[in-house]
Amino acid sequence: MLATLGKRLITVIPTLIGVIIVTFLLTRALPGDPAAYFAGPAATKEAVEQVRVSLGLDKPLPIQFVRYVNDLVHGNLGNSLSTGRPVVTEIASRLPASAELTLLGLILSMVIAVPLGILAAVKQGSWIDHTCRVVATAGVSLPVFFTGLLLVYVFYYILGWWPAPIGRLDAFSSVPPNITGFYTIDTLLTGNVETFRASLSQLILPAFTLGIFSLAPIARMTRASMLAVLASEFVRTARASGLDNRTVIITYAFRNAMLPVVTTLGMVFSFLLGANVLVEKVFAWPGIGSYAVEALLQSDFAPVQGFVLTMAVMYVALNLLIDILYGVIDPRVRLEG
Amino acid sequence: MKRREFLKSAGAAAATAAVSGPSVISSAKAQSRKETMLIVSESGPNNIDIHGVGTNVPGYEVSWNCYDRLISHEMKSVDGKPYYDRDKFKMELAEDMNVGDMSVTFKLKKKATFQDGTPVTAKDVKWSLDRAVSVGGFPTFQMGAGSLTKKEQFVVVDDNTFRVDFARKDRLTIPDLAVIVPCVMNSGLVQKNATEKDPWGLEYTKQNTAGSGAYKVTSWVPGTEVIMERNDAWVGGKLPETKKIIWRIVPSAGNRRALLERGDADISYDLPNKDFVELKSAGKLDIVSTPYSNGIQYIGMNVKIPPFDNPKVRQAVAYAIPYQKIMDAVLFGLAKPMYGAPAGSPTQVAWPQPHGYSIDIAKAKALLSDAGFPNGFETTISFDLGFAGVNEPICVLVQESLAQIGIKATINKIPGANWRTELNKKVLPLYTNVFSGWLDYPEYFFIWCYHGKNSIFNTMSYQSKTMDDLIDGAVTAAANGDKATYEKDVKGMVDTAYADMPRIPLYQPYVNVAMQKNVSGYQYWFHRRLDYRTLVKG
Q1: Is A201 at the interface with chain B, CB within 8 A?
Q2: At what angle do helices A255-275 and A87-122 cross, to 10 degrees?
Q3: Which residues contact A315 (CB under 8 A, 6 or more apart)?
Q4: Do A193 and B19 touch (CB under 8 A)?
Q5: Within an 8 Å CB–CB cutoff, is residue B457 touching chain A?
Q6: CB of B372 within 8 Å of any CB in chain A?
Q7: Are B289 and B510 in contact (CB under 8 A)?
Q8: How far apart are the CA of B201 and the nearest CA of chain A, in angstroms?
Q9: What is the Cα A92 distance to its own chain's centre?
């Protein structure tokens, strides 16, 4: 097992080197001049040049790259010009915000989509199957910012059931001590029930927005892979042996249908983590996606590079995790590994 | 896991979540809510020191409220609303200002201390102003606008007395000491945190306030929130009533509006015009709209790029702009028109003032034929995507209208980060942009926008000997108090600008602020940001 892990990790290295080079070059190729941007609206040509020198942007590209790699080796992703803080600190504080939201969204989505997918497959062609199709199509075709604004409009503005969409906590709750970075977990660990409730209620609407969006791939994938498994011989054998329906579907069929579902979940998670910019914008969520986009709009290189690099590392780690999960779910994969 | 076990544990989890919070905490919250102002806006600061590299406009707001200057402005009333008085100064850190012929002397308030308790001395003032003229970039540029360029101009007379020597006679020198840039910093504290590479301690003040101002930043999470608390030892003016400012960044305009309407936020000032109009008519909130002082949104034409080098072409364009449509459809009436002055009305000694052009397609066509383009021509019209909410519909309306006289304009959208770079190159033939000056003097506007020394804001590359002479004349006349020459020159500047028409003023934009009915004390300032010190809730 360890040897397999080691082997997998070695194959990751060239990927990361590639990512580092590509992000460095891409950010340099972007239009826009950070020196002119940060010199301010009233800057003269000399002022812009002064800023350029102080940012180190007057040096040739290879030198800038060597500096960048040297910083990376020392765990320094550089400073964000737009927020004025080290990128590492920013990402460390924003990644948990995005991860907490995405995880909850994914869990909500799973809780709805997996049973729906199973039912749709078991009762193929029934009204449940059609509901599944309609829900999935609607979920994926509604843009997230629209769903988000709609939920805010109905549940905050009109009904007043959920709190104002102003980030992870309302303005009058204090931030819990940083243990995991997940507010819901940190507040429970420190026994602060009121703040726990506050942070959970801030999470619900954005998490549902994300959940609705990710219903489709999970439900459809569950349905398709369940259909394939249900048609296979071992299920027929199980049924012929007189096992009850529940055992056949949950124990035998679903376990075998889980592999593609887990793969999809992994894909959806890493996709959502970076791509929920719009949800973050709508709910003023201090997440990593909105941070990267903001930085990009201001030609602030360091955060963009840091973001892409973090995402690449997360992606690799997630794939590794999924591979390990495969082994847990299906022993045959483990043997081949 | 067995089904029964699962149900049991799920039930337990639901029960935990349903435990309700103690009611005591909520009443404490209500109390702090009363003494706290919750502000929501689209973007927040990137640096809380205005001397920093690339500090953005929200950062200026923090500086304004957390630092003191020697002097500030009194308020006057314009349309029943408090508006800063350009000509009347009030003392902030200084208790007395004595203007001489070639210098001005300030006595500092004896009781003034910085937020860490050290007294404010003339040495701190000198260090701070030295810093402003030395760090480069925007602060140095702004100081230069008032002829404050050299460290030698700032003199410590004794611990409590400070003198500024004038480089030359300039009536903008004293007003320039009341803008945001010449703020007074705790030189000892900042120097302690300075390094060899960073002698002015910019890294420290980027994240920490080191002033004597009415508020101090106690927490700042970039892109999320800024929390400021009152400095109870403030001597710069009357102690503010609001103890705590919470400034939350809410990027979605729809949500900012919802927060205001539900009563969860106290103030917001950057909503789309349409929202302000609707909020105004709904009447649940107080809406204050004030025109930008010395600010104009305009259509610019690069006079170095044919065919815009021909004044007739520029006039033709000025006759083909759908001014009223822009006012109605883009701004929903929330702006002050800068067009359609009645024919033959005398030019005022004032800026901004409306020009005499209004839409007249026949006249525009005739002018264009005269200029040798009876069938029009092709060009591009550019705008800054950072302000697309207003810029895009303006450009679309102008494009439609220009098509009627045969000018085919393609729209060119430029991302915010690129806009200044593109403007600096001065290669855009036709574009819309906005300029506004902190110092509200006609000659100040014209120096930046029309003078032949071609600053970045002279986006048209306009060069005219007549104009330069008039501007220089007005500057000298103002410094010497020669009122007659000054008035003649200002009128001449306006007339020349409107005859040559290198840029077509559209309107004076409004600063729109929406607040709850129980919030009072809003004042309009030249920097157009909020002054928390006078805000009161209750």
Answers
A1: no
A2: 140
A3: A270
A4: yes
A5: yes
A6: no
A7: yes
A8: 14
A9: 14
Distance, CA of B212 to CA of B227 (rounded, Å): 17
Contact predicate B526/B445, CB 8 Å: no
Where does the pLDDT of residue B496 fall: very low under 50, low under 70, confident under 90, or very high at 90 and above? very high
| Dist CA B338 CA B504 (whole Å) | 9
Give B38's contacts in chain A (Cβ within 8 Å): 171
Contact criterion met (CB below 8 Å) for A87 and A79: yes
Check CB contact of A147 with chain B, cutoff 8 Å.
no
CA B101 to chain A, closest CA, distance in angstroms equals: 30
A123-177 pLDDT, tens per residue?
A: 888 888 898 888 888 888 888 888 888 999 999 988 888 888 888 888 777 788 8
E strand or H helix that includes residue B520: strand B519-520
Distance CA(A170)–CA(B58), nearest Å, equals 22
Structure tokens at A313: 């590392």
Residues A39/A47, Cβ–Cβ less than 8 Å = yes
Residues 6+ apart with CB under 8 A from A11: none
- Reported as a single tens digit per residue, the pLDDT across B323-340 is 999 999 999 999 999 998
User: How big is the CA angle at A64 (ends A61 and A65), to the nearest 5 degrees?
Assistant: 85
Whole-complex ipTM: 0.76
Q: Is there a contact between B424 and A193 if contact means CB atoms under 8 Å apart? A: no
Residues of chain B in contact with residue A159, where contact means CB-CB under 8 angstroms, are none
| Per-residue pLDDT at B154 | 95
Shortest CA distance from A160: residue in chain B: B262
A41 at interface of B, judged by CB pairs closer than 8 A: yes
**Residue A163: what residue type?**
P
Is B36 near chain A, with CB under 8 Å?
yes
Is the distance from CB of B205 to CB of B51 less than 8 angstroms?
yes
Residue of B nearest to A79 (CA): B203
Chain B nearest-CA distance from A114, in A, is 17
Number of alpha carbons in the 13 Å side-chain half-sphere of residue A213:
26
Q: Does A294 touch chain B (CB under 8 A)?
A: yes
Instruction: Phi first, then psi: give them for residue A206, nearest 5 degrees.
Output: -60, -35
Gap between the Cα atoms of B291 and B74, Å rounded: 19
> What does the pLDDT look like over A220-258, one tens digit per residue?
889 999 999 888 888 888 888 888 888 888 888 888 888
pLDDT of residue A242: 85
Mutation target vs A (from B43, B46, B384, B434; most A CBs, 10 A cutoff): B46
Cα–Cα distances in angstroms (integers) from residue A14 to residues A10, A18, A65, A76, B308, in the given order: 8, 6, 17, 20, 55
Within the 78-117 window of chain A, which residues sit less than 8 Å (CB to CB) from chain B? Answer: 80-85, 90, 93
Tokens of B340: 């359609």
Which residue matches tokens 């439609």?
Answer: B400
Do the beta carbons of residue A226 and residue A118 sit within 8 Å? yes
A181: left (phi over 0), alpha (psi -120 to 50) or beta: left
Q: Report how far residue B470's alpha carbon sits from residue A202's, in angstroms, rounded to the nearest whole number.
A: 60
3-state SS string over A226-251? HHHHHCCHHHHHHHHCCCCHHHHHHH
> Is B251 part of the contact surface with chain A (CB cutoff 8 Å)?
yes
**Which is nearest to B435 in space by CA: B301, B248, B293?**
B293
Extract the tokens encoding B487.
């008035």
* Pick among A172, A183, A192, A205 to test the B interface (most B CBs inside 10 A): A172
**How does B452-490 read in b/e, with b if 16+ C-beta sit within 10 Å?**
eeeebbbbbbbbbeebbebbebbbbbbbeeeeeebebbb
Residue B238 CB neighbours (<10 A): 9
Contact check, Cβ <8 Å, A153/B265:
no
- Choose among B247, B280, B328: nearest CA to B512: B280
- Per-residue pLDDT, A315: 82
Beta-bridge partners for B72: B90
- Please judge whether B46 and A200 are an interchain contact, meaning their C-beta atoms are less than 8 angstroms apart: no
